[in-house]
Design brief:
Layout (H helix, E strand, L loop, with lengths): L1 E4 L5 H6 L10 E8 L6 E12 L1 E2 L5 E2 L25 H12 L1 H9 L2 H11 L4 H13 L6 H15 L9 H15 L3 H17 L5 H19 L14
Antiparallel strand pairs: 1-3, 2-3, 4-5
Helix pairs in contact: 4-5, 5-6, 6-7, 7-8, 7-9, 8-9
Length: 242
């Protein structure tokens, strides 16, 4: 069980922060913000803590937690404040983009994390960061949006962990995300090949933590079962305590 407690912090920091705690709760607090573009001051209720009991195969936490973490949005121009420490040069570069016709149209039809992903792409942020944000956008996507969002996340993850460069740890996790997105998008043949290849790679390049190693092997086995059943639904490992 993991709980997140935080005053508002940057998106990439939020994604990495996970603190063990005995309580299980999703709590909110009203906070004051200043929009980086235009200086608009506003208040918004945002999550202050949440508890994750685990995650689905696309890394989405489940439990009493905001998933993805809700981010403040400027009421006037619609900018999502994903990094309060964004430097002045980035803010200047983003200003015409956020105020432009395309972004203003997106804010009426797309999700907050989709908007963040577009800003990060415009700023040439590292592809791995873009991929993580676009993956989170898929968690909040409608059924109609999901294929487009997940497809974009998959394309970014393909750049992050190409098949030709196998390795332990992060590469394995990235490959598992690719396989999950392929399964959810109905690309069963590609997902099957990926997980069939991952099993031996996981055994040949063990992680430092034996429990994590076994968990990943269990995920591979469950993924192959889901693929054979043609199951495209969200999934996680069965609860062994039930």
């Amino acid at each position: 069980m993991h709980t997140r407690h935080m005053p508002y912090r940057g998106l990439i920091v939020l994604a990495a922060l996970s603190l063990a705690a005995p309580a299980s709760a999703l709590t909110f607090m009203k906070q004051a913000f200043e929009c980086p573009i235009g200086g608009e001051r506003f208040e918004q209720t945002t999550p202050s803590s949440g508890t994750s009991f685990g995650s689905e195969f696309d890394a989405r936490p489940f439990g009493p937690i905001s998933s993805p973490w809700r981010l403040p949005q400027c009421p006037g121009n619609g900018m999502i404040i994903y990094d309060p420490d964004l430097d002045a040069a980035s803010v200047r570069k983003l200003t015409p983009f956020v105020l432009g016709k395309q972004y203003q149209q997106w804010r009426t039809t797309e999700t907050p994390y989709f908007l963040v992903a577009q800003m990060m792409q415009f700023l040439d942020a590292p592809v791995a960061n873009q991929a993580w944000v676009m993956l989170q956008a898929s968690w909040e996507a409608s059924p109609a949006q999901y294929p487009r969002y997940a497809g974009r996340a998959l394309a970014l993850y393909e750049q992050t962990c190409p098949d030709a460069a196998p390795g332990p740890g992060p590469w394995q996790f990235c490959q598992m995300i690719r396989g999950e997105l392929e399964r959810r998008l109905g690309r069963m043949d590609a997902a099957r090949v990926r997980f069939q290849r991952l099993g031996p790679q996981l055994r040949a390049q063990p992680l430092d933590e034996a429990d994590e190693q076994q968990m990943r092997l269990d995920v591979v086995a469950e993924q192959l079962r889901l693929i054979e059943a043609g199951n495209r639904n969200p999934a996680r490992l069965p609860d062994k305590d039930r």
